């Protein structure tokens, strides 16, 4: 009896402890996210006022890489990946300097037109603030990791206005096929508080409830399944392109800021040849496509290229917003090919591509409900799971750890990081993706 009372007392104290801590962290991140979004919107609006503001990309990439290289190397690339690595390898320890540096470099990159997202910086800012609080309170490694995970959840929730999906994303993105249930309550609290604080401070969020969804039929359900497979293949292409750009970047032995400037110049040329629609966040294209607007069929491929160059050669920002862009544009094309409503499949594609690229099917399915309403939820969830499976053992976050394997043939690799197994899990000779890439390489050499 005494043991039972003692156990319940400890759990009760733990609940109140994490309720207080999650509220503090959520409020701090809500304020910091609002500050970041305000500065980003202000800078972007001023640069957009000039017709050829994107000509600043070489200078912006140079400054971003220089600042990061000199002051906070941990702030390189897309922020969520660095936080995942910090949780797994450093018990959640993040240098305080990362927070202001990430804000500055991301604003510079996005304002000039770099193709990146705003969620990665918010996740890294949130995790950094949580790590600082942990240092002040002298937390153990276990409690530090929990609080940092709350920071990830709060950052995602406040930047997209999706508190439930944000909370789930924070505890799902760390592992492939598992969630940390012991951090579920504080993650929910941190995400909700962060969202409420940022909303109160004037942050505006995008919601697009889908009122028209075709009546259920076996044919429609089969088309949704096919679309999920296609979204998985598209997310696989994104991951492979990211890896390819990283390899090319490592082979170029120039001073990093100079290399980043050259990448910015390449983006300027691409923007002049293709369109400026693939620069920056691309929110107008995302919203227009979700409302049924027409898109060029190769828009998703162009966005993949612009994003991989930005994040692979010195630009700073996140990866989720570009994933949304790629998902809605590819989803619209898939909808046309399958003879269904392009806007509905654009919404499904937006979350399904996130599921496949980030290995987060549960968070992506809940995100569909929070952004588009419950009507589309069953179809979105089906596509999300199919995309998650089709992507295989890859991820845009190489530091994710395998908690399960998507095939029983690889059970011995549970507990290893995606990055460790990347080479081993690439398609072998004769595989579909390998055949396609080999053909492209041969054609390039022949030309």
What's the end-to-end separation, in Å? 80 Å
CATH topology of the largest domain: Clc chloride channel
Strand order, biggest sheet? Answer: 1-2
Helical run tally = 18
Q: Taking all residues together, what is the mean pLDDT?
A: 85
CATH top level class name of the largest domain: Mainly Alpha
- Broad shape: globular
CATH superfamily of the largest domain: Clc chloride channel
Helical proportion? Answer: 55-70%
Report the biggest beta sheet as strand number plus sense, adding barrel if it closes: 2 strands, parallel
The secondary structure category is mainly alpha
**CATH architecture annotation of the largest domain:** Orthogonal Bundle
Q: What amount of the residues lies in strands?
A: under 5%
Radius of gyration: 21 Å
Strand segment tally = 2
Overall structural domain count: 2
Q: What are the segments in which pLDDT stays under 50 over at least 5 consecutive residues?
A: 427-432
Taken in chain order, the helices and strands follow as HHHHHHHEHHHHHHHHHEHH
Question: Strands, helices and their partners?
Answer:
Blueprint: H1 2-48, H2 57-71, H3 79-89, H4 98-112, H5 119-137, H6 141-160, H7 163-172, E1 175-176, H8 184-200, H9 218-251, H10 256-273, H11 283-290, H12 299-312, H13 320-338, H14 342-358, H15 361-372, H16 377-390, E2 401-402, H17 418-421, H18 432-446
Parallel strand pairs: 1-2
């Amino acid at each position: 009896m005494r043991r039972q009372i003692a156990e319940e007392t400890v759990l009760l104290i733990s609940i109140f402890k994490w309720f207080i801590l999650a509220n503090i962290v959520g409020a701090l991140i809500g304020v910091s996210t609002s500050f970041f979004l305000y500065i980003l919107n202000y800078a972007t609006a001023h640069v957009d006022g000039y017709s050829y503001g994107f000509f600043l990309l070489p200078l912006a990439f140079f400054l971003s890489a220089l600042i990061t290289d000199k002051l906070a190397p941990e702030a390189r690339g897309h922020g969520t990946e660095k936080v995942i690595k910090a949780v797994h390898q450093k018990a959640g320890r993040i240098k305080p300097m990362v927070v202001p540096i990430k804000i500055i470099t991301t604003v510079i990159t996005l304002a000039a037109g770099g193709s990146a997202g705003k969620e990665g910086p918010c996740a890294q800012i949130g995790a950094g603030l949580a790590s600082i609080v942990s240092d002040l309170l002298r937390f153990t490694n276990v409690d530090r990791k929990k609080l940092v995970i709350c920071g990830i959840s709060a950052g995602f929730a406040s930047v997209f206005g999706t508190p439930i999906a944000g909370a789930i994303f924070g505890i799902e993105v760390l592992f492939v096929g598992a969630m940390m249930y012991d951090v579920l309550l504080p993650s929910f609290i941190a995400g909700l508080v962060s969202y409420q604080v940022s909303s109160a401070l004037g942050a505006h969020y995008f919601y697009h409830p889908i009122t028209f969804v075709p009546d259920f039929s076996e044919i429609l359900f089969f088309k949704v399944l096919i679309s999920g497979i296609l979204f998985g293949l598209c997310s696989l292409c994104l991951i492979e392109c990211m890896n390819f750009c990283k390899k090319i970047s490592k082979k170029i032995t120039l001073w990093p800021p100079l290399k980043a400037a050259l990448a910015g110049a390449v983006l300027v040329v691409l923007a002049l040849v293709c369109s400026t629609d693939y620069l920056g966040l691309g929110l107008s294209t995302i919203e227009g496509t979700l409302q049924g607007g027409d898109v060029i069929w190769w828009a998703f491929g162009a966005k993949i290229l612009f994003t991989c160059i930005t994040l692979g050669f010195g630009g700073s920002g996140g990866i989720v917003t570009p994933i949304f862009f790629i998902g809605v544009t590819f989803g619209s094309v898939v909808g046309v090919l399958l003879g269904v409503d392009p806007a509905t499949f654009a919404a499904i594609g937006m979350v399904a591509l996130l599921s496949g690229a980030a290995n987060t099917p549960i968070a992506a399915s809940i995100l569909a409900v929070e952004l588009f309403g419950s009507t589309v939820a069953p179809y979105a969830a089906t596509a999300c799971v199919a995309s998650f499976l089709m992507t295989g053992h890859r991820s845009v976050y190489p530091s994710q750890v395998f908690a399960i394997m998507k095939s029983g043939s690889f059970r011995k690799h549970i507990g290893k990081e995606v990055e460790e197994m990347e080479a081993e899990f690439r398609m072998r000779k004769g595989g579909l993706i390998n055949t396609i890439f080999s053909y492209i390489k041969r054609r390039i050499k022949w030309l």
